[in-house]
Design brief:
By secondary structure, the protein is of the alpha/beta class. Helices cover 56% and strands 12% of the residues. The chain has a single domain, classed as P-loop containing nucleotide triphosphate hydrolases (Rossmann fold, 3-Layer(aba) Sandwich), CATH 3.40.50.300. α1 crosses α7, α2 packs across α3 and α3 runs parallel beside α4.
């Protein structure tokens, strides 16, 4: 992985499995893993409470600061960073992602349905999680695709090992193309 621009950054819709994939990929290949949402919560409290108390705009500003800090921090130079689903919609975050290897984890509604049905911890999905998830993905898909260096097919209920191998192959191909 050393010849690729790092850190590797995972983007995609909420409940896609970015953190799960990032954790397993990092563990398998000896990289660090950091979830931007966990960093936000460690410093500012639960994300649903931030949304409720201060609104989405305030949360997005905090999120952009955290992403900037993570991408600039040399401790995360050899890391996999998972971003929240809305982070790439912020122009400042889009600018920050330039020059990094950005992996878009593509999923469909059937894949995320078990993860979002009845879930009350995702404020942007209320009151109808499945309908809102579809609407949000429709709004964000073009941005995810535009920012992606790699598009990874995470549809269906694939084993995590299969996704890790699929990402590794895509990164090897990217490295080969970069040196050709």
């Amino acid at each position: 992985m050393s010849s690729l621009p790092t850190p590797l950054v995972l983007i995609g819709p909420m409940a896609a499995g970015k953190s799960h994939l990032g954790h397993h990929f990092a563990k398998r290949y000896g990289l660090d893993f950091v979830d931007a949402d966990h960093v936000i919560e460690a410093h500012h409290g639960p994300i649903p409470a931030l949304f409720t108390a201060h609104g989405q705009q305030h949360f997005r500003a905090i999120e952009a600061e955290v992403v900037a800090d993570l991408l600039a921090d040399h401790r995360y130079r050899n890391a996999v960073i998972s971003l929240g689903g809305g982070a790439p919609m912020t122009p400042a975050v889009q600018d920050l992602l330039a020059g990094h290897t950005v992996i878009y984890l593509e999923v469909d509604e059937a894949t995320v349905r078990p993860r979002i049905t009845g879930n009350k911890t995702r404020p942007m999905l209320q009151p109808d999680p499945e309908r809102r998830w579809r609407e949000i993905l429709d709004e964000r898909r073009d941005t995810y695709e535009r920012l992606a260096t790699i598009r990874l097919d995470g549809t269906g209920h694939r084993r995590i090992g299969s996704l890790v191998q699929q990402l590794h192959r895509a990164l090897k191909e990217l490295r080969r193309d970069a040196t050709a």
